[in-house]
Amino acid sequence: MRFPIGFSLAQAKYMTAQKRSGRKRYPTVVMLEPLYTCNLACIGCSVERHTGKLKDRLPLEECLKAVDDAGVPIVAICGGEPTLYPELPQLLETLIARGKYIILCTNALLLDQKVFGVIPPSKQLFVNVHLDGLKETHDFVCDRKGVFDKALDMIRESKKRGYLTITNTTIFKETDIEEVEQLCELLTDLKVDGILISPGYHYESVQRDVFLTQEEIHNRFRQVMKLSNKYKLTATPMFLEFAAGLRELACSPYSTVNFTPRGWKGPCYLIGDRYYADFNEFWDTVDWAYWETRQDRRCANCKMHSGFEHSAVEEASRSLKSMMQLAAWHVSG
Ligand code: SF4
């Protein structure tokens, strides 16, 4: 199975309930960023996400309210580096007690101090480790030596302690797909529970030329598609076809909503045209119909997983053949 059965069922149940209630658009994931403080400054990361002060973090109550207001089954906690968030144990404990599935997106440097032995493993908690390549590449991307070795040690320890452990790899201009395959092989040997490979996002605040053009994304992802048959990749075949330029999709920026220390970020994780204090105001004000069409110049090269995976699954549900393909993919991992 690509995902634990409980996770897939919770998602399917939620999506069915949303459709039955007649909602055309609905969020499925809150990307919760409790702080914009980080212990790294990776080269492809937006500047604001690693330069914030700890004192400006979101209070625990605001994080919980944001998840309640959005009503989603899945919370991806990122940032910033979420293990630096002092209230992380209470946040996780409360979200798990409320039945949420949590993806803790981390660079892994502090897992041994802040998570292991502090927050017990749970079927609702995924530890998601950032790894953009093998040692030389990953340390280059993170702009610090030793990060790859530490991340690997933490993945081993995470598996040993019984945490659901997944990884997250971004493809940049310099990424060599052969190296990505070697990384997949290594992670498979470590028995990770899933590997997400997705195209880099082009943040306007990043000056360095590290992002792929659309044609480069297509070429790389035609190769990544082949890896999906061999390794436990978690992006759906429909998303990978889109990333490879073999199918078109509308964007679904509403499917993964982003709550930050500045408020709800609209329209999406990538573009912060406006921040909103109130969820309903955010939801009712953003012109989702406009952003779905990808006509904005800033959408031109975007193949962001959080913008398009929902569209890929929706597209699959429109034909029996695609639904069968998706079901086969789910059980094949
Ligand atoms: S295409 Fe990308 S940048 Fe544009 S709204 Fe969708 S996710 Fe955001």
Total separate domains: 1
- Total count of strands: 9
Fraction of residues in H or I helices: 40-55%
**Rg, please?**
19 Å
Q: What is the typical, i.e. mean, pLDDT?
A: 93
What CATH architecture would you give? Alpha-Beta Barrel
**What is the spatial order of strands in the main beta sheet?**
6-5-4-3-2-1-7-8-9
Text of the CATH class: Alpha Beta
Q: Please report the distance between the alpha carbons of the first and last residues.
A: 5 Å
Question: How many alpha or pi helices?
Answer: 13
Bound molecules: iron/sulfur cluster
From the structure provided, what is the oligomeric state, counting identical versus distinct chains? Answer: single chain
Query: Residue ranges: pLDDT <50 for 5 or more in a row?
Result: none
Strand content: 5-15%
Categorize the overall geometry.
Answer: globular
Report on the biggest sheet: 9 strands, mixed
Structural class of the secondary elements? alpha/beta
Please name the fourth-level CATH homologous superfamily.
Aldolase class I
Instruction: Give the SSE order as H and E letters.
Output: HEHEHEHEHHEHEHHEEEHHHH
- As for the CATH topology, it is TIM Barrel
